[in-house]
Specification:
Layout lengths: L9 H8 L48 E2 L2 H12 L4 E6 L6 E8 L5 E8 L1 H5 L16 E5 L5 E7 L11 E9 L3 E9 L8 H8 L7 E2 L1 H6 L5 E3 L3
Parallel strand pairs: 2-10
Antiparallel strand pairs: 1-9, 2-3, 3-4, 4-8, 5-6, 6-7, 7-8
């Protein structure tokens, strides 16, 4: 099956996230080729999580000197999910102040999976997302503030985002540190059994390397990952 995820536009995101004090940004991405799994093109970054629950013995460096790149994001995703889950990455023309990739999984089921990191200037537009709401959260929402001041929020919506998705669901989350920027992860399943879980998204979002200015080693770790360039 072939699907196309073009412009998860700001109107939708604001309706979802501002209502829950989450961030709302434009996610201009596309996904093609949600068909049977192909031979792998993604390789995990050395020293990262292998996807089997084990993690690197080295603590993440706090040396943030370089803007994250698509291959850097890909390296982080592989650290958390592993190459046994991830098939390949695709990058499209970026929006100003953001870096993003689409992730294709090996299970071959129809899905849309995007990871986007954006600049402090973009994060300032959504200041309400920098703190958890005081009012009670509805079922399917979670929000917490980490020791470093990053607010991590996740949400599960029973219903697909794409027009052709009538039986699916969306799992999404944000990590906001206004002075450092933010990250958005959005996974759309075409059924009620998503391959990627809320816990998977939280693992990604709480990784201190998934930020606008990251350790140069993160981008270097992704240099050997085949991130396909597409005009959609």
């Amino acid at each position: 099956m072939t699907s196309r995820w073009i412009a998860a536009h700001s109107g939708y995101m604001r309706a979802i996230y501002i209502r829950s004090a989450f961030v709302g940004i434009t996610l201009v991405l596309a996904l093609t080729g949600c068909g049977p799994a192909e031979s792998g093109t993604a390789e995990p970054a050395q020293g990262g999580n292998s996807g089997d629950g084990s993690s690197s013995s080295e603590e993440p460096s706090v040396d943030r000197q370089e803007q994250i790149t698509p291959v850097g994001i890909a390296a982080i995703v592989l650290q958390h999910l592993g190459s046994d889950v991830v098939r390949e990455f695709v990058v499209y023309e970026p929006e100003p102040g953001s870096v993003s990739v689409m992730v294709k999984l090996r299970d071959g089921t129809p899905h849309n999976f995007g990871v986007q990191v954006y600049s402090p200037e973009q994060a300032e537009l959504f200041s309400a997302a920098g703190q958890c709401p005081r009012r009670p959260r509805r079922k399917g929402e979670s929000c917490r503030t980490l020791e470093n001041g990053t607010t991590v929020a996740t949400r599960v919506d029973a219903g697909g985002f794409s027009d052709d998705n009538v039986e699916g669901m969306v799992i999404s989350g944000t990590a906001i540190t206004p002075e450092d920027g933010g990250a958005l992860v959005m996974y759309e399943s075409y059924d009620d059994s998503p391959t990627v879980s809320v816990a998977d998204l939280e693992d990604l979002l709480t990784d201190p390397q998934l930020t606008w200015l990251t350790n140069p080693a993160v981008n270097k770790a992704g240099e050997d990952i085949d991130v396909k360039d597409s005009t959609g």
